[in-house]
Design a protein that fits this description.
Layout: E1 3-6, H1 11-21, E2 33-34, E3 38-43, E4 58-62, E5 65-71, E6 82-85, E7 87-91, E8 101-104, E9 109-110, E10 121-125, H2 126-134, E11 145-154, E12 158-160, E13 163-171, E14 178-183, H3 191-194, E15 200-210, E16 217-221, E17 227-229, E18 235-237, H4 240-243, H5 251-263, E19 277-278, E20 280-293, E21 298-301, E22 305-308, E23 326-335, E24 345-348, E25 354-359, H6 376-383, H7 388-409, H8 411-415, H9 425-434, H10 447-452, E26 462-463, E27 470-471, H11 475-487, H12 498-501, H13 506-514, E28 515-520, E29 528-529, E30 531-538, E31 543-547, E32 552-558, E33 574-577, E34 581-590, E35 604-616, E36 620-624, H14 630-635, E37 641-646, E38 650-655, H15 657-660, H16 673-676, H17 683-687, E39 689-699, E40 703-705, E41 721-737, H18 747-754, H19 758-762, E42 764-770, E43 784-790, H20 798-802, E44 819-822, E45 828-834, H21 843-848, E46 856-857, H22 859-863, E47 871-885, H23 894-898, E48 910-917, E49 925-931, H24 932-935, E50 946-956, E51 962-965, E52 971-976, E53 1013-1031, E54 1038-1039, E55 1042-1043, E56 1055-1066, ...
Parallel strand pairs: 1-2, 5-8, 10-11, 10-18, 14-16, 22-24, 27-29, 32-35, 42-44, 46-47, 49-51, 57-62
Antiparallel strand pairs: 1-7, 3-4, 3-6, 4-5, 6-9, 7-8, 11-13, 11-15, 12-13, 13-14, 15-16, 15-17, 19-26, 20-21, 20-23, 21-22, 23-24, 23-25, 28-34, 30-31, 30-33, 31-32, 33-36, 34-35, 37-38, 39-41, 39-43, 40-41, 41-42, 43-45, 47-48, 47-50, 48-49, 50-51, 50-52, 53-56, 53-58, 53-59, 54-55, 56-57, ...
This protein binds zinc ion (ZN) (2 copies).
Biased composition (Basic and acidic residues): 655-676
GO molecular function: single-stranded DNA binding; telomeric DNA binding
Family: Belongs to the CTC1 family.
C-alpha cells in the first residue's frame, strides 16, 4: 500500500498537507498516513558489492534490506550515515510483487555525526581553465586540477554498456565562459542528487580529455575527485602553469567515450524538404497529472502538455514522477502537433535538457518502474534515431499491440525485445513499418556533440508533423469501420440497374435488395489498415477467426496454388495480414412497392451486416508462432498441445483450441478423459500419446443432425446437434509415442509397404464431429492425410474401443457396414500432407488410395445428358450470385426448419442461386441452388471466387436443364479468392465484356452450355408484342391506377410496366426466335427513350396492349382495329425500317414456350432476286435477348467480310437451285 509517515505532525497539519496535494487532481485520494518510524543508512549502493551496480540511485538500508529512495535535497556528507527519517512516503510498484521506493519528504535527522570536510584546496577558476579546452597544445601535457564555477546545466544520467555517467557544466563566476565536466566514477554518481542549478561548486582532481572523433574537450573526474560547495575562503588560486605539469591521465576516459559513441550508432534524422518545423526551447514548471506511458517516458503535465523523457534514456527512473508531483523542465523542446493524431503539445527533454523534481506527490498513486533493459520503446528510438513524430507513432502502435494481444501471450513475451536474430512479435511488427520511414543513410548519432556542442544539435530540434502511414486498430474497431464504410453513401438503387428495376414486381425488387456485399482492402482505409489477429478456430461457428482482446473476425484462408488451407499448426499464432479482402455482407429487409420508391428509405425496414475477411496464406506473416504449450499442459496434467518436427526442417507447433480457450471458456472437466487416460501414475504414462493416421475420402457439410450418441446425462439427447461427418480411411495401425514431440514423419506409410495391404483396404470409418471437435471443420479436407493424437493415452485400441457398433477386433477388417467413431473433444487433429504430396517411398500406400481422386467431375461432364451420377463434385468460378425464391420442392426440411437459425440473416424462404462457370472464359455455366438455412456456415461465396463444390445433388428441370442443389451431405471449399478489384455485384448483364461472335447454325451442338453469345443478324419480323402495366404485388393487369384483381381484392397501388416480344432473326446460317423483355423491346423496335416513355404512358390507361403477327403472309389481323396504339404498333412492326441488321447478345432461352417447340427439319423457300431457293432448315433455337446494338454501315461491312472469311466452311445452309 502506498502510505506516508509524518512523525511530528498533528492530524490537522497532515490534513492540510494532503488537501493541498489534491489541487490539480481532486479525484485522486491522498496518501494514507501511517505511524511508522524509518531509520537507516543513506547509501548510493557502493558497498553492496559490485560497484558496477551503482547506478546513481540513492538507497535507505539497514541490516534487513535496502530500498531505493528519492530526495529533493541531499548532501554528500549524508552518505553512509545513519538517519532518522521524520517524513516520508512509501510508493509500491504497480505489480506489487517487486519492492517500491521511498520518497523522503523532509531532511533526515542524523543519528550519528556526519564526517568532517577537507581543508582548503588549490582551485583554478574557470576563466583561466576554459582556454585549456579550446587550445590544442595544452592538451598534451596535463595534470589534475580543481575547478570552481557555477552550475549552469546538469545533464541526465546515462547508462551505456553498463557504465553510468553524466555531464555537468560549470560557468565562470565573472564571464559567460563554461566548461563541461564528465562525471563517471561510480562513487560520484550520487553527485547528481546534490547538484542544483545556479549553485557554486568546486570539483577537484579533474583531468582533461578529448573525444577522438570530434576533438571536443572536457574535464573528466578521477577517482580522487571531490565535489565541494564553493566557498571563497576555502580556496586559493593556483596558477595554471603549475597545474598542467603532470602525467596524462586521459586514457581511461577516452576509451569510455569511444565506446559510448559506438554504442549509440544512430542515424541522424533526415531533413525533409516539406515544411519542417523548428522546435522552440523553453523552460516549464508543471504538475504531473497522468502517466501516459511510463515505459515510453510520456507524462501528462497540467492536463495539457505531454512531457517526453524518452530521449533522456533512463527516464529519471520515473521515480517521483507520479501524478501530483511538480517538475521543473529547463531547456526542453516544444513541439506542436508532431503526430496528427496525438492530442497534446509535446515537451521533449533531450540530452541537454534538465528535469528537476520540485516536489513529491501527496497522492496515493503507485509507480511502475520503466525497464531500462529490454525496453522496446527506447531500443527502437535509439536504434532508428527516431524523431518525436515517429516515436509517438511507434508508442501508439506498441500500446495498441500490447493492449490487444498481451492477454494471449503475456506482455513480457510479446514485447520482448530480443537479439536481432530472433526478434519478438512486436519488433517483427514494428520494424518493417519503421524502416521505410527512417532514412537509409545511417550516421552515428554523436551524443557527445549533442551534449557538448555550443550550438545545440539534437533529434528534437526539427520535426515534421506526421500523418501515420498505416494503422492497426483493434478488431472491434475494424469491424465497426468496415460496417460504416459499407453503408456509407449506400442507396438501394445502386444494387440494381434502373433499366431492369423499373420492370420488377415488388417481390423480385425487394429480394434483389436483400443481400449484397462490398469488399474492402487495406487501401480502402485512410491510413492503410493492417490486420493483426491470433488465428483461432471457433467450435461454435466452426469457422476460422482472427482474434484480439476486443473481438473476433471470421476469416477464410486459401492458398494461392488452390490447395485448401489445413495448417493446424498455425492455430494460436499471431498473424499479420496486409493484403486481404474484408467482406461486408449487407442484409436488407425492405418493402419497396416499386423501383420509383427506391429513394425513399422509409421502406428499409431492417439493416444488418456481417463482416469477415479473406486472405491467402502466402500473404500472412506470422509474428508469433503458437507456443508449444505441451510442457505447460503436461505439468498441469492437461496435455493440450503438441509440437512436432517435420522433416527436421521446421518445427511446427500445435496448440489446441482447448488451451486457447482457457481465457474465454471455463475448462470443463472432461468426462471422457479418464477412460483414455492411463491415470498418470508415472510421468511416462502422462506424456505418452497415441496417434493414428488417416486420409479423408469424403467430407460433409455442417448441419443439425439427429445424433443421440452421448451426453445423455446432459438431457440433450433428443436435441439436434450441429455436426459434420467425414469418411476416412485409416492408414496403418495406431502408434504409441512416449511424448507428443516425438511424433515422427509418417512411419505408418512405410510400414504398410512391407505389411500386407489387406488390413488397410477395409478400414474405412465414419468420423462424427460434434461439440468441441467441430473446430476441426475448417481444417479437414478431401485427400488430406491427418493424424489424430490422443494425449495422455497409451492404449493402442483407443480408436477401436470408441467405435460403434462395437465390433470384435477380429471382424473389423471384414465388416461391410461402416463403423462410426465420435471424435473426442480432447483429441488433436494434425495435418500431415496431401495424397498428391506423398513421396516415391510412400507410394506403396498410395496404391491403396487409387480410385479416390477421380470423383471430381468437370462442369461440362455434369451438364452432359449422358451423365448418370446423382451426387456430383466439381470446381468452378462463381459468375453471378443472386437470391431467388426457394423452389417449392426445395423447401427446407421440417426438422431443420423447426429450429430458428440464429446465425442466419436471410429470410428462410430465400434461396441462393450461384452461376458457376468451369473456366473464366469457357462460357459453360452451371446453376447451383443453396437454401438459406445452409448459408450461415458458408463463407466466401462471392462472384469471382473459385470454389470446390462437393456432393451436390444433380437435378434436371422440366425444361431438361441440368442444375445442382446443395444438400445435407454437400460441402464447399474455396480454391481461390476473387480478384480484389471486383465491383459491386449484380451488374447488368449487358455490361459484361462483349461475348464471342457465333453463328446460329453453330449453336446446336452445345445447346446446354452457352451462357452468352453474340450474333450479327437480320431482324426478320416481330411475331408477338405485348406491353402491359401489371400489379407489383400480384402481377394482375393494372389499369387506371388500380389492380384489376377482384377476388380477393388486391390492395396494391403500384403498377409496373412490362413489355415482351418474340422476334425472328436470321444470320444467313439459320433462324432463331428471340424473346425480348422490357428495355430490350424498345431497342428491338428502334424507339427512342422519349417515344418509348410516351408509348408506355398510353398503355397505362389500357392496362395491356398486344399484337400478333402472321408469320409469312401478314394477313392475320386479330386485334381490335379501333385501338390507336395497337394500330401504331402493328404498323411499326410491319415497317421495313424495323427489319434491319443488328448485333444481338443472347443466351439460350432455357424455358422455351410451348408454341416454340423445336421443329424437325423442314424445307423452306427463299427468294433472292429472280432466283428462288429451296433450303433445308433446322429447328429454330429459342434465344433470350440480352442486348441489342444497332450496326453502323462501316461496322456492318467489316463484320460481313470477317464473316465471309471465317465461314466458307461453316455454312450449313444447303442451297439447291
Ligand atoms: Zn535538444
Ligand atoms: Zn394486385
Amino acid at each position: 500500500m502506498p502510505c506516508c509517515s509524518h512523525l511530528t505532525w498533528s492530524t490537522n497539519e497532515f490534513k492540510e498537507w494532503a488537501h493541498q496535494g489534491q489541487g490539480s487532481l481532486p479525484m485522486q485520494s491522498p496518501l494514507p498516513r501511517t505511524y511508522l518510524i524509518l531509520v537507516g543508512y543513506l547509501t548510493d549502493g557502493r558497498q553492496e558489492g559490485n560497484a558496477n551496480l551503482v547506478d546513481g540511485c540513492l538507497y535507505v538500508k539497514d541490516n534487513t534490506g535496502i530500498i531505493p529512495c528519492e530526495l529533493l535535497h541531499f548532501e554528500l556528507e549524508w552518505l553512509e550515515s545513519l538517519f532518522l527519517f521524520p517524513s516520508w512516503s512509501y510508493i509500491p510498484q504497480t505489480d506489487r510483487s517487486a519492492a517500491g521506493y521511498v520518497e523522503i519528504l523532509a531532511d533526515p535527522v542524523p543519528v550519528n555525526l556526519p564526517k568532517e570536510v577537507c581543508d582548503s584546496i588549490p582551485v583554478t577558476y574557470l576563466a583561466s581553465a576554459e582556454p585549456l579546452l579550446t587550445s590544442r597544445i595544452a592538451c598534451k601535457k596535463r595534470s589534475k586540477l580543481a575547478l570552481a564555477g557555477e552550475l549552469v546545466r546538469l545533464g541526465p544520467l546515462l547508462c551505456i554498456h553498463h557504465k553510468t555517467f553524466f555531464f555537468l557544466f560549470l560557468k565562470c563566476f565573472t564571464s559567460a565562459v563554461w566548461v563541461p565536466v564528465l562525471v563517471q566514477k561510480p562513487n560520484q554518481l550520487a553527485w547528481h542528487h546534490i547538484l542544483q542549478l545556479g549553485h557554486r561548486y568546486t570539483i577537484t582532481s579533474l583531468s582533461m580529455s578529448s573525444l577522438k572523433k570530434s576533438g571536443q574537450r572536457m574535464f573528466v573526474t578521477s577517482v580522487s575527485s571531490c565535489l565541494l560547495h564553493y566557498c571563497a575562503e576555502q580556496v586559493r588560486e593556483q596558477p595554471l602553469d603549475s597545474a598542467w605539469q603532470g602525467e596524462s591521465t586521459q586514457s581511461s576516459s577516452l576509451e569510455t567515450a569511444e565506446q559510448l559513441s559506438g554504442s549509440l550508432e544512430l542515424g541522424v534524422e533526415e531533413e525533409r524538404p516539406r515544411s519542417t518545423k523548428e522546435s522552440k526551447i523553453i523552460s516549464y514548471v508543471g504538475t504531473v497529472t497522468k502517466i501516459l506511458n511510463g515505459q515510453a517516458g510520456l507524462f501528462l503535465l497540467d492536463n495539457k502538455v505531454c512531457l517526453c523523457l524518452a530521449y533522456q534514456q533512463l527516464l529519471n527512473f520515473a521515480r517521483g514522477l507520479r501524478p501530483g508531483a511538480c517538475v521543473e523542465l529547463i531547456d526542453v523542446h516544444l513541439l506542436q502537433k508532431p503526430l496528427v493524431s496525438f492530442p497534446f503539445i509535446v515537451l521533449g527533454a533531450c540530452l541537454s535538457s534538465t528535469v528537476v523534481l520540485k516536489s513529491f506527490s501527496r497522492l496515493s498513486t503507485s509507480y511502475q518502474p520503466p525497464t531500462s533493459s529490454g525496453n522496446l520503446y527506447l531500443q527502437l528510438l535509439f536504434r532508428y534515431n527516431l524523431g518525436m513524430p515517429l516515436y509517438l507513432w511507434l508508442v501508439s502502435l506498441l500500446e495498441m499491440f500490447e493492449e490487444r494481444f498481451s492477454c494471449f501471450f503475456g506482455r513480457h513475451r510479446l514485447l520482448l525485445s530480443s537479439t536481432h536474430r530472433n526478434p519478438g512479435a512486436a519488433e517483427k511488427f514494428l520494424v518493417p513499418l519503421l524502416q521505410p520511414m527512417v532514412p537509409d543513410r545511417v550516421e552515428a548519432r554523436d551524443i557527445y556533440n549533442e551534449i557538448l556542442e555550443k550550438i545545440h544539435h539534437c533529434p528534437l530540434q526539427k520535426y515534421l508533423s506526421l500523418n501515420p502511414p498505416c494503422q492497426a486498430p483493434s478488431l472491434s474497431v475494424v469491424c465497426r469501420v468496415a460496417e460504416e464504410k459499407s453503408w456509407e453513401g449506400f442507396s438501394p438503387s445502386q444494387l440494381l440497374s434502373p433499366l431492369e428495376a423499373q420492370h420488377m414486381g415488388t417481390q423480385e425488387l425487394n429480394r434483389r435488395l436483400a443481400w449484397s456485399y462490398c469488399t474492402l482492402s487495406a487501401g480502402s482505409f485512410q491510413p492503410r489498415l493492417i490486420l493483426l489477429g491470433v488465428l483461432r478456430v471457433s467450435s461454435r461457428s466452426s469457422s476460422l477467426q482472427l482474434q484480439d482482446k476486443s473481438s473476433a473476425l471470421p476469416c477464410v484462408i486459401s492458398h494461392k496454388d488452390g490447395s485448401p488451407f489445413a495448417r493446424t499448426a498455425l492455430i494460436g499464432s499471431l498473424l499479420q495480414v496486409e493484403n486481404y479482402q474484408l467482406v461486408v455482407e449487407r442484409f436488407l429487409q425492405t418493402d419497396f412497392p416499386s423501383w420509383e420508391h427506391l429513394a425513399n428509405l422509409e421502406h428499409v425496414r431492417e439493416k444488418k451486416n456481417s463482416v469477415y475477411v479473406q486472405f491467402c496464406f502466402e500473404d500472412v506473416q506470422v509474428l508469433h508462432a503458437a507456443e508449444g504449450q505441451i510442457q505447460k499442459g503436461l505439468r498441469s496434467g492437461n496435455s493440450s498441445s503438441l509440437r512436432r518436427k517435420a522433416d527436421g526442417s521446421l518445427t511446427s507447433e500445435l496448440e489446441t483450441p482447448k488451451a486457447k480457450m482457457l481465457k474465454l471458456e471455463d475448462p470443463k472437466p472432461d468426462t471422457h478423459r479418464d477412460e483414455n487416460c492411463q491415470g498418470g501414475q508415472s510421468s511416462a504414462g502422462r506424456t505418452s500419446c497415441v496417434s493414428r493416421l488417416f486420409v479423408v475420402t469424403q467430407k460433409e457439410g455442417l448441419m443439425l443432425r439427429n445424433y443421440q450418441l452421448r451426453r445423455e446425462e446432459d438431457g440433450e439427447g433428443s436435441e439436434l446437434q450441429c455436426s459434420f461427418q467425414s469418411t476416412v480411411l485409416w492408414l496403418g495401425r495406431p502408434q504409441l509415442w512416449s511424448h507428443p514431440r516425438e511424433i515422427g514423419n509418417l512411419p505408418e506409410l512405410e510400414e504398410t509397404g512391407c505389411d500386407g495391404e489387406e488390413d488397410l483396404t477395409r478400414q474405412e470409418v465414419l468420423l462424427l464431429f460434434m461439440g468441441k471437435s467441430l473446430r476441426w471443420f475448417p481444417f479437414l479436407h478431401l485427400d488430406g492425410l491427418y493424424r489424430f493424437i490422443v494425449p495422455c493415452c497409451s492404449d493402442l485400441e483407443v480408436f477401436d474401443k470408441l467405435c460403434f457398433p462395437p465390433v470384435p477386433a477380429k471382424f473389423l477388417s471384414r465388416s461391410s457396414c461402416p463403423l462410426c467413431l465420435p471424435v473426442q473433444d480432447t483429441w488433436h487433429l494434425q495435418h500431415e500432407t496431401w495424397i498428391s504430396c506423398l513421396t516415391e517411398r510412400q507410394l506403396a500406400a498410395r496404391s491403396v488410395l487409387t480410385g479416390m481422386d477421380q470423383r471430381i467431375s468437370s462442369i461440362p461432364e455434369i451438364l452432359h445428358n449422358s451423365f448418370t451420377g446423382s451426387l456430383v463434385s466439381f470446381s468452378g468460378e462463381i459468375v453471378e450470385r443472386t437470391l431467388c425464391a426457394s423452389p417449392k420442392n426445395e423447401k427446407p426440411s421440417v426438422t431443420v426448419g423447426l429450429r430458428k437459425q440464429k446465425g442466419s440473416l436471410l429470410a428462410a424462404d430465400h434461396s441462393l442461386k450461384l452461376s458457376v462457370s468451369a473456366a473464366p472464359d469457357s462460357g459453360v455455366v452451371m446453376d447451383i441452388y443453396i437454401a438459406a438455412t445452409y448459408l450461415q456456415h458458408l463463407w466466401g461465396l462471392l462472384p469471382g471466387a473459385k470454389i470446390l463444390f462437393q456432393n451436390l445433388e444433380r437435378k434436371i428441370s422440366r425444361f431438361h436443364n441440368v442444375y445442382c442443389t446443395y444438400i445435407a451431405s454437400s460441402c464447399v471449399s474455396i480454391i481461390s479468392l476473387p480478384a480484389s478489384h471486383l465491383p459491386f455485384p449484380s451488374s447488368p448483364a449487358g455490361e459484361a465484356s462483349s461475348p464471342s461472335l457465333v453463328f446460329l447454325s453453330s449453336l446446336q451442338p452445345h445447346l446446354q452450355n452457352l451462357p452468352q453469345a453474340r450474333i450479327l443478324c437480320h431482324l426478320s419480323c416481330v411475331r408477338t408484342l405485348s406491353l402491359q402495366w401489371v400489379c407489383s404485388l400480384c402481377s394482375s393487369i393494372f389499369k387506371e391506377g388500380k389492380c384489376t384483381r377482384h377476388s380477393p381484392p388486391c390492395p396494391s397501388h403500384t403498377g409496373v410496366r412490362q413489355a415482351s416480344a418474340w422476334v425472328l432473326v436470321e444470320d444467313g446460317t439459320g433462324e432463331a426466335l428471340v424473346l425480348c423483355k422490357n428495355q430490350h423491346v424498345r431497342a428491338m423496335l428502334g424507339l427512342s427513350l422519349l417515344e418509348w416513355e410516351a408509348l408506355q404512358n398510353c398503355v397505362q390507361s389500357r392496362g395491356r396492349v398486344s399484337i400478333q403477327h402472321g408469320e409469312a403472309t401478314g394477313t392475320g389481323c386479330v386485334e381490335e382495329p379501333e385501338d390507336l396504339i395497337a394500330c401504331y404498333l402493328r404498323n411499326l412492326c410491319r415497317s421495313p425500317l424495323i427489319c434491319r441488321p443488328i448485333l444481338l447478345d443472347f443466351s439460350l432461352n432455357r424455358k422455351p414456350s410451348k408454341i416454340l417447340q423445336p421443329a424437325p427439319l423442314q424445307l423452306r423457300n427463299f427468294r433472292c432476286g429472280e432466283v428462288e431457293f429451296v433450303s433445308q432448315v433446322g429447328p429454330r433455337p429459342s434465344l433470350l435477348c440480352l442486348n441489342v446494338e444497332e450496326v453502323e454501315q462501316g461496322t456492318l461491312s467489316y463484320l460481313n467480310s470477317e464473316r465471309i472469311r471465317r465461314t466458307s466452311s461453316h455454312c450449313q445452309v444447303v442451297a439447291t437451285a
